[in-house]
From TrEMBL:
Organism annotation: Streptomyces toyocaensis
Keyword Signal carried by entry: yes
Stretches of the chain forming a coiled coil according to its record: none
Pfam families linked: DJ-1_PfpI
Record-linked Gene3D superfamilies: 3.40.50.880
Signal peptide start-end: 1-23
Name recorded for this polypeptide: AraC family transcriptional regulator
Length: 241
């Protein structure tokens, strides 16, 4: 049983007062055929100044996973009204949907603009306040997995979502977060249950592959890696119980 289904089962049992033991770590992954009626719904939130690879790296992983027949439904979303977003290096991205927490199992939060305090990016989103409020409201539901990558982790922390939970971020932002009291670990990918973090830019691909492995198993993740011709680096630091 994957973690998402375990959470859903746990919530249902809690409502009836029943309890259940956690699934064994060696439990076989659910096949695409078994899960075809219950796709993993992933939203990737974008905003002006977002880093291109922070968006398109995970998106490529999600697209490849779906193309292989695994049940993944993914979409780009905004924190406000749908429209056109201008990314860090000028790429124009048409985003037809706004984020609805009730329609997502995973929310990918990329970074961008960390060094541009007066330009588009995470600081502008924090100043505006709408996206941080949305993130806080969404994080109240423990069934939603937040995947912060690069300086999107800074956005999550400044929005009050991470608090004292362990995290990682782009190497250039680690000291900033430590100065703010964050529990920053030196890991490329960190898994703390319904909070997953990845380091800078290309590490977002590693984190997305980890999420696919967590959902569909190691063989699926290996197939996706081969298709992408991408080799994950290092190990995933798992801090959840």
């Amino acid at each position: 049983m994957n973690r998402r289904n375990a959470l859903l089962s746990g919530a249902a049992l809690a409502a009836t007062g029943a309890t259940t033991a956690p699934a064994a770590a060696t439990a076989p992954a659910t096949s695409p055929q078994e899960q075809k009626h219950h796709p993993l719904r992933v939203h990737v939130v974008v905003f002006d100044g977002v880093e291109e690879l922070d968006v398109f790296g995970p998106l490529q992983v999600l697209g490849a996973t779906a193309a292989m027949g695994f049940p993944v439904a993914y979409r780009l979303v905004t924190g406000g009204r749908p429209g056109t977003v201008s990314a860090r290096f000028g790429t124009r991205i048409d985003v037809p949907d706004a984020f609805d927490p009730a329609e997502a199992d995973v929310l990918v939060v990329p970074g961008g603009g960390f060094r541009l305090r007066n330009g588009p990016g995470i600081w502008a989103e924090l100043k505006d306040g709408h996206l941080p409020r949305l993130l806080r409201e969404a994080a109240a539901d423990e069934r939603l997995t937040l995947y912060g990558l690069c300086t999107g982790v800074v956005l999550l922390h400044e929005a009050g979502v991470i608090r004292n939970r362990p995290c990682t971020t782009h190497t250039g932002a680690k000291q900033y977060l430590r100065d703010q009291g964050a529990d920053v670990r030196d890991a490329r990918v960190l898994d703390d249950g319904n909070l997953v973090c990845a380091g800078g830019v290309s590490a977002g691909i590693d984190g997305a592959l980890h999420l696919m492995e967590r959902e569909f198993g190691s063989e699926a993740a290996a197939r996706i890696e081969r298709y992408l011709e991408f080799e994950r680096r290092g190990t995933v630091l798992v801090t959840s119980g």
